[in-house]
Write a structure and sequence with these properties.
Layout lengths: L2 H18 L3 H11 L5 H6 L10 H37 L18 H14 L4 E2 L5 E3 H4 L18 E3 L5 E3 L5 H9 L4 E10 L11 E11 L4 H16 L5 E8 L2 E10 L16 E10 L1 H6 L8 E8 H9 L12 H4 L7
Parallel strand pairs: 1-5
Antiparallel strand pairs: 2-4, 3-4, 5-6, 6-10, 7-8, 8-9, 9-10
Helix pairs in contact: 1-4, 2-4, 5-10
Subunit structure: Tetramer of two alpha and two beta subunits.
Organism: uncultured Thermomicrobiales bacterium
InterPro entries: aa-tRNA-synth_II, aa-tRNA-synth_II/BPL/LPL, Phe-tRNA-synth_IIc_asu, Phe-tRNA_ligase_II_N, Phe_tRNA_ligase_alpha1_bac, Phenylalanyl-tRNA_Synthase, tRNA-bd_arm
Length: 347
Amino acid sequence: MTFTDDLAALRQRALAALDETTDLPEVQAWERATLGGKGELTGLLRGLGRLSAEERPEAGRAANMVKVELTEAFAGRQRVMAAADLRDRLATDAIDVTLPGRQPAVGTLHPVTEMIEELSEIFALMGFQTVYGPEVETSHYNFDQLNIPSDHPARDVWDTFLVEGEGEVVLRTHTSPMQARVMESTTPPVRVVVPGRCYRFEAQDASHEWAFHQLEGLAVDERITMADLKGVLREMARQLFGGDRRIRFRCDFFPFVEPGVDFAVDCSVCDGKGCRVCKYTGWLEMGGAGMVHPNVLRAAGYDAERYTGFAFGLGIERLVMMRHGVDDVRAFAGNDLRFLRQFAGGI
């Protein structure tokens, strides 16, 4: 066979093979086998040098025409296969816009934060303003201004985290320092609640954490009595837990109040029968309270003969435990979504 015959046969085979390709990879494989550096047409063109001088020009023109034709055929087939491949991928990835959308995952407030906001609303209806104070506090406000001087034995009761630096700086052990700060900057009457985080270096158990939240309450005015304190706390408990909860006040000692009481609600976890949360007493202590000590009033510049007041501190986590029947305070700081999802469906 002559070179021209071989070229015609190659053209016919190549075009037939190209027509039989069904996807883009097959088209690209055809291009490599036919037009590539080691392709069939390239190998045939290398034989031009073996032709005579008279045959070579005509054979060269014919070979170039075949190469151009096959290249254009490849480009056309590649466009067709690329378009088909795109259609297939679009069909596979198609989205039915008529389907209802997926519900997005939406966060919600932590149960402790929700309790703080609810308490703030409850006390706002009784005339209390919500204020906030620093978590890193000086011993002057954390202890001295609250009738707990450096030589007072009660100062050892608070296992305190000390902060390195000049002077005695601590992580506040209670929200009570805001009593002194508020009274120093406010003229009676005073009615404030102070929510915030507190820190104590103590052992952890089902009802105690080293970092916890309190809500401090303070009211100072003329002729305020213990009956006012009991009325405010009873109303708070009624709005939080309902009228069927039992409330208990017992005498207790706190250096910054006199007289002092502890405020407890019958345990909703065990319905007052006794469990590890209430230490098998049937009561869950909510916090301490009492009449503001005259020394605290005088330290703030108030006339202790004219003004009286009451103060209370409530454990926020314990209130949430009572509300929802949680039996371990450590769960609130665990950030376990399985636990948190029980309080709101949005997490």
